Amino acid sequence: MTAPPSGPLAALWPAGPVEIAVLTVLTLVTAVVAAAVVDGARARSRAVVRTAGGSSADPLARLLASSRRGFSRTRLGRGLADRLAGGSVRLAPLDFAALVVGAGVLAALVVRPLLGVVGGLLVVALAVAGASRWLQRRRGKRVEAFVGQLPEVARVMSNASAAGLSMPTAVGMVAREVADPAGTEFRVVSEQMALGASLDAALLDLDRRLPSRELRVLVRTLVIQRRSGGALSTALAGLAGTLEQRKELRREVITAVSGARFSGVVVALLGVVSVFVMNLISPGALDALATSGPGRLVLLASAVLFAVGALLIRRLTDLEV
Prior knowledge:
Shape: flat
CATH architecture of the domain at 146-251: Up-down Bundle
Structural class: mainly alpha
Strand content: under 5%
Radius of gyration: 25 Å
Number of strands: 0
Largest sheet: none
Helix content: over 70%
CATH topology of the domain at 146-251: Receptor-associated Protein
Oligomer: single chain
Low-confidence stretches: 1-14, 51-56
CATH class of the domain at 146-251: Mainly Alpha
Distance between the termini: 64 Å
Order of helices and strands: HHHHHHHHHHHH
């Protein structure tokens, strides 16, 4: 067996069988995800073969497809799939989760000589939380842009309804005439309707991808007016003006609470940074705390207090317009 390196590289060499096992698993996960990303063109060919009644002869491809389907059926997979679609991230839920966890484990192994085992676990948690926050923020920006386009969407549909066009045609007009993200999302709605989905189901799927109160109002208006046979063009024209006013109000509210939201982020980061600084000043302090009863209580109490503070600030600044 090859002896561990000495000198500067010794600090990065895994210290025991647990680290070696983790590195092996990480290597396998990275290889699988890399194969899935590179296999994009072949995946389309396999889809054509399956549609024609054939089957793929690639065992790795079948394993990946089966794993992706199984994970996507779970509650976590469905929620992650909606967030990825809302954020316009072209990755399968399983691929995204594997990349995030793999990157977190790799970073934990790199910083373990400096931060210890507890610090490495915190790095993994930070990687997962950071990826979740990044995805939520990306989705939130897309939702904001989509909500800002809803008055234009309502006006286009109102004009189409006033001209006597059907609802599928009006949805197609929105997909052609409105820019991204509304145009892209309504193109998906139009394609779903062309494949046999009802307008209600297609719009509900859109609401799962980009949830917002304004979109729900538009969906309910379309459904109620279509079922009751009312003046859809008049209702949509009035809704366009209301959505325009709500857009301005949302902009003012976001500007007013932006400072408090930033304070909440700073409060959460201060706790993590202070723990890392403490371990850098006194190497091994985190591991020593984690191996004693009073130390565990201190770590738990600190984590709870910082989490409660960040949560309270977020609840106070989370205003629904």
